[in-house]
Specification:
This protein is an alpha/beta fold. The protein is about 40% helix and about 20% strand. The protein is globular, with a radius of gyration of 17 Å. Its cofactor is Mg(2+).
Length: about 250
């Protein structure tokens, strides 16, 4: 089984497990989110250690160790990206299984179990999306849209689309349901590794919002911002963000 096949299989299976936990009717709200996180994480960690014992591993739901820093291949997973949305039984949550090789998001899969159509976006099966000629659509947080995203949307006449998890937002661009995902204000490596790997495989632009590369398997797993978009928008968006300047508010 190739790395891409393994990532897709694990993401899909973890998604099925999460749906079973949700449908058990034993938990609701935050308790459901916690149960889902713990159950999916246990499965993913056990499976990766069994299938790729020589590789490093970083999971949001497991205690981090420095052992991974000496490895060129590190699996970076988020068992439930969008725990709040999962606990609220919404559809906009995801499962991330990514593989960083020498710091680059290289292989991965993102499952979207909440959509109910078995969607698993993966690096080894890039899809072609239909053409869209309307106003650019920017996916943003339901609760705190990025300052930069609001400014860019205004400047380019874009339409804001509110959505939950980082994976759901990134895959909206991959699936052709949006053109731009611009985020600032805080994320970690597990929030973006698998989505970035998938987005790159589909020919999308992926970078920090200053245009620098997204680098993974760092000692500090904080990776606060990113831009995923169709390539034709990248230069203009990066220019607009530079012109906007840094956010000096207390929140950041």
């Amino acid at each position: 089984m190739t790395d891409a096949q393994l990532a897709a299989h694990l993401a899909e299976t973890a998604g099925q497990i999460l749906l079973q936990v949700r449908d058990s009717a034993m938990f609701t709200g935050k308790a459901l989110g916690k149960a889902g996180d713990e159950t999916a994480n246990q499965f993913l960690v056990h499976a990766l250690r069994a299938q790729r014992p020589e590789d490093g591993l970083l999971s949001e739901e497991s205690k981090d160790t420095k052992e991974r820093l000496g490895k060129s291949r590190v699996w970076i997973v988020d068992p439930v990206d969008g725990t709040r949305e999962y606990g609220e039984e919404r559809s906009d949550w995801a499962v991330h299984v990514g593989l960083a090789i020498d710091g680059r998001a290289s292989v991965g899969a993102v499952a979207l179990p909440g959509l109910g159509d078995g969607a698993v976006l993966r690096t080894d099966r890039p899809a072609i999306t239909s053409e869209y000629n309307g106003a650019p659509r920017l996916v943003v947080s339901r609760t705190r849209p990025a300052r930069e995203a609001l400014a860019v949307a205004k400047a380019i006449g874009g339409e804001l689309v509110e959505m939950g998890s980082a994976g759901a937002k990134a895959m909206a661009v991959v699936r052709g349901d949006a053109e731009i995902y611009l985020h600032s204000g805080g994320q970690y490596e597990w929030d973006s590794c698998a989505p970035v790997a998938v987005a790159l495989a589909h020919g999308l632009h992926c970078s920090r919002i200053d245009g620098s590369p997204l680098v993974y398997n760092q000692e500090d797993t904080w990776l606060p911002d990113l831009l995923i978009c169709k390539p034709e928008f990248a230069d203009e968006i990066l220019r607009l963000v530079r012109e906007l300047g840094p956010d000096t508010s207390a929140e950041n």
